[in-house]
């Protein structure tokens, strides 16, 4: 039977952007093999400011700006990269490396070579960004053997799942939502710990009840939880 995890009582509020930043900061501090690379992630603090302050703290060797060319994603043996896509729409430029290299190396090496890499960034529709920035790739990556895919919606889930993704020995795709970056959510005391992680692959009971069941995904949780709150 599938296990579940539940959110503990809330203590403070934190935006999704700050939760993601905190998760990367804690993992960079915890493991010197972890580093972040992507377009404008260093001196510019990231296109959505998710990596704010990390370059000043960890320097050029750990926070690395790359050319505006998603095909330049590299896998480096013995390290644990976090690759930020400015938008997952342009991850198609690197699809061969993600699908045919990262996702399949562990299987094709008979379990001898793991690929601990995180691909993260905004995914899906936003506001006024037109066709080339509005696609959702959850189904694409979710149907690829060898990849783990997570799509957090609130701050606690964003922090806990990103930390688990960074520590995982497999390639993990973290699909974030641009519209939720600046939204504050309650963070439990447990979630504020540097040891806080959320296991990948376990469903979450957001609110217990006996009148019906909603199975939700990604940013739709934000709308539905607010709707339930208003109805009750």
Give the helix proportion (percent range).
25-40%
Task: Please state the structural category.
Answer: alpha/beta
Q: Mind telling me the C-alpha Rg?
A: 17 Å
Bulk shape: globular
Average pLDDT rating: 85
Strand order of the largest sheet: 4-3-5-6-8-7
Overall strand count: 10
- The stretches of 5 or more residues where confidence is low (pLDDT under 50) are none
Q: Helix tally?
A: 7
H-E order: EEHEHEEHHEHEHEEEH
The largest sheet is: 6 strands, parallel
Give the percentage of residues in beta strands: 15-25%
Give the N-to-C terminal Cα separation: 30 Å
Keywords:
232 residues; alpha/beta; six-stranded parallel beta sheet; two-stranded parallel sheet; 10 strands; globular
Structural summary, described in words:
This protein is α/β, with parallel strands linked by helices. The protein is 27% helix and 19% strand. It contains 7 helices and 10 strands. It has helices spanning 16-30, 54-58, 95-102, 105-108, 138-142, 155-167, 220-231; strands at residues 4-6, 10-15, 34-38, 63-65, 80-84, 118-122, 148-150, 172-176, 184-188, 203-205. The strands form 3 sheets. A 6-stranded parallel sheet has the order 4-3-5-6-8-7. A two-stranded parallel sheet has the order 1-10. It is globular, with a radius of gyration of 17 Å. It starts with a strand and ends with a helix. The model has no long low-confidence stretch (mean pLDDT 85).
């Amino acid at each position: 039977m599938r296990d579940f995890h539940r959110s503990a009582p809330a203590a403070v509020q934190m935006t999704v952007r700050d939760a993601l930043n905190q998760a990367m900061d804690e993992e960079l501090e915890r493991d010197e093999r972890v580093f972040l690379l992507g377009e404008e992630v260093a001196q510019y603090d990231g296109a959505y400011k998710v990596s704010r302050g990390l370059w000043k703290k960890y320097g050029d060797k750990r926070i690395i700006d790359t050319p505006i060319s998603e095909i330049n994603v590299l896998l480096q043996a013995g390290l644990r990269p976090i690759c930020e896509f400015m938008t997952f729409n342009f991850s198609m430029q690197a699809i061969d490396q993600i699908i045919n290299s990262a996702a399949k190396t562990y299987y094709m090496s008979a379990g001898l070579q793991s690929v601990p890499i995180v691909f993260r960034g905004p995914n899906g529709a936003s506001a006024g960004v037109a066709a080339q920035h509005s696609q959702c790739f959850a189904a694409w990556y979710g149907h690829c053997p060898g990849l783990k895919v997570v799509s957090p919606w609130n701050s606690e889930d964003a922090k806990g799942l990103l930390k688990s993704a960074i520590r995982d020995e497999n390639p993990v795709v973290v699909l974030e939502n641009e519209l939720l970056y600046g939204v504050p959510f309650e963070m439990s005391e447990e979630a504020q710990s540097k040891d806080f992680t959320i296991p990948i692959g376990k469903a979450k009971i957001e609110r217990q009840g006996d009148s019906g069941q909603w199975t939700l995904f990604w940013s739709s949780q934000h709308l539905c939880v607010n709707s339930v709150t208003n109805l009750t």
